[in-house]
Amino acid sequence: MIRRNDLPPAPVKLMTSRRIRLRIAGVALLIVAGAIWKGDIAHSQSPPADKPVEQVRKNIQVLRGLPDSQLFPVMNFIGDSLGVHCDYCHVIQGVDPKTGRDIWLYESDAKAAKTRGREMLKMVLDINKTTFGGNQTVTCYSCHRGSTRVARVVPLPPIDFTLPKTDSKVPPLSAEQILSNYFKAVGRQDGGANMKAIVYKVTIERSQGRTNAVWQQILPTTQEITTKGRDKYLAKMTTPQGTVMQGFDGSMGWIRDNNGSRQLSPGELAQVKQTASLYQMTKVTDDVAQMKAAGIEKFGDRDVYVVAVTLGAKTIRKYFFDAESGLLLRRTTTTDTILFPLPEQVDFEDYRDVDGIKLPFTIRTSGLAAFTTATRKFTDIKLNTMLNDDVFKMPVTGSK
Q1: What is the per-residue pLDDT for 3?
Q2: How do strand 242-248 and strand 197-206 relate by DSSP bridges?
Q3: Is 314 a member of any domain?
Q4: CB of 110 closer than 8 Å to CB of 48
Q5: Whose CA, among 21, 116, 279, 315, lies 20 to 30 Å from 193?
Q6: Does residue 176 have a pLDDT over 90?
Q7: Is the dihedral of CA 165, 166, 171, 172 positive or negative?
């Protein structure tokens, strides 16, 4: 997990776009909050315990009790819903001449939009409590839909609802049948549990050229990823400063950089496993026995089967499988907070045959902020039957 002290100085000349400056400031704060994973390799400092936001930040009035790690995703949800940046409500007090980054006064109430925003948050909480039994039925996006103005008039011309509907001809299937078709389509009826090692060469792309200049120093762009079965993972990135590695050997997660090797904390390990799931041969990593068929939907012009699984009390994950090919096209994860549901999305594209196995050569991950959205493009994928499990074990400090 990268933290504020890990961020390299950003040359002022790079900040030619106000939007980029706003987002870089947001990244620095998100890093402190520990709210998102940064690329596929974490830095070697352990994140702090997740406290209620009012114990960490100043002037919190409405969101008291919200875990600090959820604050910035919630703020991004609001910004996306209204189509605005952070400075719509929050104050920037110039630019730090040493770093080139904006100086944010998040605790300031100088802008009327922030006061109005608090009123709207209270309204949403009250509507859901009194009308929808406390469920998160209404959010900012319910009315705003990406604009500060709430739509009052329906668009014209209207839809002719008297026209006959074209019903899907795709037969309903059980979750077991859908998953069985997926494993067959990939090429592994066993779900990949006994799969040989896979070695990926991957390039990671981000919006607004964030793979270059200062962003290249913050977020790794080219990596070698190795997985074996469902419980072994190794990520390796080479930089001008040296090689950074992160791995999981089936029982312990670890990281190694110029500061040496150390074991990952439980929170860091959970993030590593989440990232590693993108590189496993089959992308369905949750308990198959707990999954349920959730209907048939449209994915562009294609019919897709939806399978859902509940993960704990506040998280639901859905898988979307192409009804024709059986391959997985999308995975969404939605986590409830005290105010809004926080979505994450992964899209799997450009499936190709690799020694009899169907693997996606493009994976797109999307979060609520532009800088959490990335496209992983694989330049090479190889199956390796000779790989020794020792490569996944934590290197001894001092070894090469």
Answers
A1: 33
A2: unpaired
A3: yes
A4: no
A5: 315
A6: yes
A7: negative
Q: Domain holding 272: CATH number?
A: 2.50.20.10
**Sign for the pseudo-dihedral over CA of 353, 181, 318, 166:** positive
CA-wise closest residue to 66 among 342, 277, 319: 342
The per-residue pLDDT for range 222-235, each reduced to its tens digit, is: 789 999 988 899 99
Task: Write out the two tokens for 281.
Answer: 């041969």
Contacting residues for 200 by C-beta, under 8 A, at least 6 apart: 224, 225, 226, 227, 279, 378, 380, 381
Within 8 A by CB and 6+ apart from 306, the residues are 293, 294, 295, 296, 297, 318, 319, 320, 321
Instruction: Report CA torsion sign: 299, 309, 349, 352.
Output: negative
Residues 111 and 183 occupy one common structural domain: no
Token code pair at residue 263: 């074991």
With respect to residue 337, please indicate whether it lies within any of the assigned structural domains.
yes
Structure-model confidence comparison of residues 178 and 37, the more confident one: 178
| Closest by CA position to 246, among listed 39, 84, 102, 27 | 39
Provide, rounded to the nearest whole percent, the portion of the chain with pLDDT above 90: 57
CA distance 374 to 212: 14
